[in-house]
Structure of 8-amino-7-oxononanoate synthase:
Amino acid sequence: MSVSILENQRNAVLDTFGQKIDELKAGELYREFLPVGHLAADRGHTGYRGRKVQVWCSNDYLGMSQHPEVIQAQIDSTGRHGTGTGGSRNIAGTSTAHVELEDRLAAWHGKERALVFSSGYVANFETLSTLISAIDGLVVFSDSLNHRSLIEGIVRSGAKKHVFAHNDMADLESKLALYEADRPKLIVFESVYSMDGDTSPVSAVFDLAEKYNALTFLDETHSIGVRGPLGAGLSAEIDDHRATFVQGVFGKAIGTVGGYVAGPDTALDYVRSFAPGFIFTTALPQAAMDATLRSLRLVQEGDALRAELAAKTELMKAELRSRGIDFIDADSHLVPVMVPGGERVRRVSRQLLEEHDIYVQPINFPSVARGGERFRVTVAPFRTPEQIANFADAMQKCLQEN
């Protein structure tokens, strides 16, 4: 076969990707990535094309990524230890800060052990896929609105699974009842669901787990730092610590990078020993772990921050409500503003950015159902009443014009 024919075949294969991207764009599903430069000296703002823009969709719920003490902790640690670890956790990558952080996380959640991963996604995927695969005959019960990282971990394991209707305890129980008491079972769910901002009936899930002899894996990603007396999540807020495993992240309310799982010692030692995504990846830098330790202390002492976050969230809801702006009034710090239509939500987002120096990222299918497009608005504690009112005014104007 001639070289030119082979080259044409290779190009035809590569053209497949362009065709798939064109399909995304035609279906209004193509994702835009906005290049920004967050400004530590001006919290809640980012640089964009020479302008200073307010960010209203950040997962940095408490503004800890720009807290002076957290920044200084990372700077000081970088000066002492350098910018990277140079190896995986088992090859020179386990710093003293990793060990201290894992000990503190375990104590925070009242568990025997904690294990730090490079991200929350990796923590979920690697822990679930590794643990589930190790237990013969285990059946998984997964909430229908679980995060992709949870879903992928379950699917990767190859275990038998049931998806129960979101927060529907009757549906969950009907599926649990299909199996004998001694059949291994695992219920996987979240405490706060990020797209609607609603919370799960945590204690009711634990009750069913006890009744049907099931383990539980609770993803506290969106409640870590912002719920509970020490910021340990929704389960801590309701003083119900029966979760077998608790997952959390640093990249949201803690303001740094990484994720973790806390739970039984031997189970997490097994994950540490067998999870490929833990074993065969470079460990997070010690400087990042030292910054996380400093942030964790501030968050644990941050009752005033959590109260301010709740107050500012309620103020935002009041401002939106007074202007007739449609939003989901959920029991969390997340405020989903509903803007149905893939193209419409993008137009509103562009107008807010270009005319009002406000950045909110449009959320559309498959993250939410078609027709459920929205902005997921977050209101950090440092936001002023004037900024909140100005945001609502700008949102009202752009919605009316689109």
Q: What stands out?
A: The two ends are 56 Å apart (CA to CA).
